[in-house]
């Protein structure tokens, strides 16, 4: 095999009029090798196979199968050629498919996918793009059952980003997040764009759900659903999710409270409003300046959706919710209770898993660290604690307590049972007790006589 350096050298020497023999002596190879490379019969850098290619006899079959079905799995095709007698390994098989370029491109898929990315112009105030960002491994003291989520809203014209941290993807939390993010963005655009999330539309058809229709009517916005299998139709919000995950979530400290995390997210979004942009005339401006100039409608009052989350009752009969703790009557320590809050109202309710009401509280601001306790709950807890209090002297812990006589006797019995009969000890068998405990043969009473082989009794 000639490397590319030797091949280039041979080409240059041949152009200078050198003979094949002189080039072969100069490169230290045979004349046949030089002649084959100069004629194009061999390719430089590729060693010729010393044994026949085991795939060669199956190449035409693979070409026909993949030509009829470009999406046929290589594993399925490998099973077919193995049944036909192919003896090579699966990695060698797939390498041969790629080297011969036997899999054709699917034209319908090629028309729907492209590596090109075009920036779609959005008029001011026209569209807000929405998406969720999943945040794995949130701080344990947040009390979330699994991952945390950030509902992101982006003004498509100016690229202003705002987000709201939530613990659930259900529709009430989505409605709360829409209200929070719209307020942070500064208003409502004419249309909202979502991907096929089940709380907004039916993922298969893309039609709005019956429960989300009143939400769109409440905000007086048109809804656009992204088509399936078309990536980057919400490029602005997808880019915001990438930036926020890398620049904010990765560096969040473990001791950060939920309210502190939300404040940090608001700060970084406001700081990113300083990104530079070009205005319609080509002049330099910023994201914040473009966003302030967008004609946005004022956000309406929150839709009265009811949030419902589960919490575990502490030993002090307290239930944590959004950075505050609320009291319930004693006797429910360790139980799972449900906290309900209707958006737009100042109160929250706590009930058992079966729906029995436990407490009704005025809600404190999120993250305030407030301890909200009703007087009746405090009195009930005090009565329970005092009822369990006693002035009886505790059991002495440092007095001597040797084993009792019964315990010593039981220990001797155990040692004797484990040791077994001692050597030289005679074992006596009581045959009368054995005979009385056995079952009489053939149902007859035991007489001490045995029967002979012919059925006659013998003594």
From TrEMBL:
Any Pfam family the entry gives: Mu-transpos_C_2
Disordered: annotated segments: 438-459
Coiled coil region boundaries: none
Integrase catalytic domain sequence ranges: 120-294
Superkingdom of the organism of origin: Bacteria
Record GO biological process: DNA integration
Protein name: Integrase catalytic domain-containing protein
Taxonomic lineage from the root: Bacteria, Bacillati, Actinomycetota, Actinomycetes, Pseudonocardiales
């Amino acid at each position: 095999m000639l490397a590319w350096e030797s091949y280039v050298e041979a080409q240059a020497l041949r152009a200078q009029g050198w003979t094949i023999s002189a080039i072969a002596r100069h490169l230290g190879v045979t004349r046949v090798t030089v002649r084959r490379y100069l004629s194009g019969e061999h390719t430089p850098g590729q060693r010729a196979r010393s044994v026949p290619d085991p795939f060669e006899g199956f190449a035409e079959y693979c070409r026909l199968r993949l030509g009829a079905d470009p999406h046929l799995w290589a594993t399925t095709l490998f099973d077919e050629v193995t049944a036909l007698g192919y003896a090579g390994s699966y990695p060698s098989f797939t390498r041969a498919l790629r080297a011969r370029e036997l899999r054709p491109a699917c034209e319908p898929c090629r028309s729907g996918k492209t590596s090109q990315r075009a920036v779609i112009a959005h008029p001011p105030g026209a569209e807000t793009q929405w998406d969720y960002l999943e945040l794995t491994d949130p701080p344990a003291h947040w009390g979330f059952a699994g991952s945390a989520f950030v509902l992101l809203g982006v003004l498509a014209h100016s690229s202003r980003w705002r987000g709201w941290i939530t613990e659930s993807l259900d529709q009430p939390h989505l409605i709360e997040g829409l209200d929070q993010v719209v307020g942070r963005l500064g208003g409502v655009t004419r249309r909202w764009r979502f991907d096929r999330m089940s709380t907004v539309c039916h993922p298969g058809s893309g039609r709005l759900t019956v429960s989300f229709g009143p939400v769109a009517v409440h905000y007086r916005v048109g809804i656009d659903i992204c088509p399936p299998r078309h990536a980057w139709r919400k490029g602005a919000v997808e880019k915001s999710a990438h930036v926020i995950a890398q620049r904010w979530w990765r560096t969040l400290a473990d001791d950060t409270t939920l309210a502190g995390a939300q404040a940090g997210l608001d700060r970084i979004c406001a700081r990113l409003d300083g990104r530079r942009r070009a205005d319609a005339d080509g002049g330099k401006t910023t994201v914040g300046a473009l966003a302030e100039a967008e004609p946005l409608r004022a956000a309406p009052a929150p839709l009265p959706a009811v949030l419902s989350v589960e919490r575990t009752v502490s030993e002090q009969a307290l239930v944590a919710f959004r950075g505050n703790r609320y009291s319930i009557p004693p006797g429910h320590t360790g139980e799972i209770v449900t906290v309900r809050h209707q958006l737009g109202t100042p109160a929250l309710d706590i009930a058992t898993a079966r729906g029995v009401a436990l407490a009704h509280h005025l809600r404190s601001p999120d993250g305030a660290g407030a301890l909200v306790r009703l007087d009746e709950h405090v009195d009930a807890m005090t009565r329970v604690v005092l009822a369990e209090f006693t002035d009886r002297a505790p059991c002495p812990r440092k007095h001597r307590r040797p084993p009792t006589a019964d315990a010593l006797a039981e220990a001797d019995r155990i040692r004797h049972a484990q040791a077994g009969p001692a050597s030289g000890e005679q074992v006596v068998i009581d045959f009368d007790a054995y005979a009385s405990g056995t079952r009489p043969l053939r149902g007859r009473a035991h007489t001490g006589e045995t029967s002979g082989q012919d059925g006659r009794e013998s003594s």
